[in-house]
Design a protein that fits this description.
By secondary structure, the protein is of the alpha/beta class. Helices cover about 45% and strands about 15% of the residues.
Length: about 325
């Protein structure tokens, strides 16, 4: 039988993992069902999610393409920065095809026997990145791919500089006041509060990133808030950014606020709807001037961050130098 492998033993696979998003509105139900572990959403739940997507995408659905571009940009960055190492990027999504397992199997089919896994999320949690790693490791063991994993990169200097640059640029949008009068709110996706009993590093890593960005930009009036909590019947981490904006305005007289969603790396539902529509609607009601920082997307400094931590894992294995 003819050998169908595309790559030799020198190739190093890079499994780029992320949450995933449907590619079109007619895929939303299947996507939502997968998130709910096979339990279909109610008609009301589905209508609510579809409505949110419709508000941000209209007749065009660009969200999945954002992640595709990040994988393509990482491949280009690895090729440019480390031409002595043959990296090959594969995509693996948590809740949409190609699933994490699909990405690992594609590597094996192409003849790759060693790989690095990295998640498009800088901060580690056992409930998020830990889950990705567990699935990828199980799939890798099944097909004979030796895989190591980048668990977090939340204080990488290039990541901090990329975020700091976005804060600096966003603060310039407040032309009516000095930057010192703007309250900066760093945010990330909330998780169930029970992670606190698990000594999960997620909250502290987010605070460490927030402090580093604040120090780099000279911002002193800042705090952290959570967003996009799930409706699961259990308590999620707070304070919620919407509740906090309302409190800051009513109790502290804050009229100018900048949201920097450091827990997210691309434009997707939690940013384009939860912040750009929902939070902005609240700000309009309160008479509060609200801005947010641009997302990283394919920012070169972010791509270089990812390339650096991926190469670092290879060096640990004694392959690169």
């Amino acid at each position: 039988m003819e050998d169908q492998r595309k790559y030799g033993s020198d190739a190093i696979g890079v499994l780029v993992m992320s949450y995933g998003t449907p590619e079109s509105l007619d895929q939303v139900e299947a996507y939502y069902t997968h998130i709910r572990r096979g339990k279909p959403p109610t008609a009301e739940q589905l209508d609510d999610l579809v409505r949110r997507y419709e508000k941000i995408v209209g007749g065009f659905f660009p969200l999945r393409r954002n992640t595709d571009r990040q994988v393509e940009a990482l491949q280009a960055t690895l090729d440019r920065e480390y031409p002595d190492l043959k990296f090959v990027c594969y995509q693996g999504l948590k809740h949409a095809a190609p699933f994490i397992e699909d990405g690992v199997r594609a590597m094996a089919a192409d003849g790759i026997t060693r790989a690095v896994g990295v998640v498009l999320a800088p901060h580690y949690s056992s409930m998020s990145v830990g889950g990705y790693v567990k699935r990828a490791q199980a799939a890798a063991e099944e097909v004979g791919v030796a895989m190591s994993f980048v668990e977090s990169y939340h204080l990488h200097p290039k990541l901090i500089e990329a975020l700091a640059d976005r804060v600096r640029r966003a603060l310039k949008k407040f032309t009516e006041v000095d930057a010192e009068e703007v309250k900066v709110l760093f945010t990330a996706h909330s998780l169930p509060e029970r992670i606190l009993q698990m000594n999960d590093p997620y909250p502290e890593q987010l605070l460490e990133t927030s402090r580093a960005v604040a120090e780099r930009t000279g911002v002193t009036d800042w705090q952290f808030a959570w967003q996009s909590a799930g409706q699961t019947g259990e308590k999620w981490l707070g304070p919620d950014v919407l509740e906090e904006l309302e409190r800051l305005h009513s109790e502290e007289g804050v009229d100018y606020a900048l949201v920097c969603p450091i827990g997210f790396v691309s434009d997707h539902l939690e940013v384009l709807y939860d912040l750009d529509i929902e939070a902005q609607a609240l700000a309009g009601k309160l008479g509060l001037h609200l801005e947010r920082t641009e997302m990283l997307n394919t920012e070169p400094l972010y791509m270089e961050t990812l390339a650096d931590v991926v190469r670092g894992k290879v060096v640990e294995a004694g392959v690169g130098s």
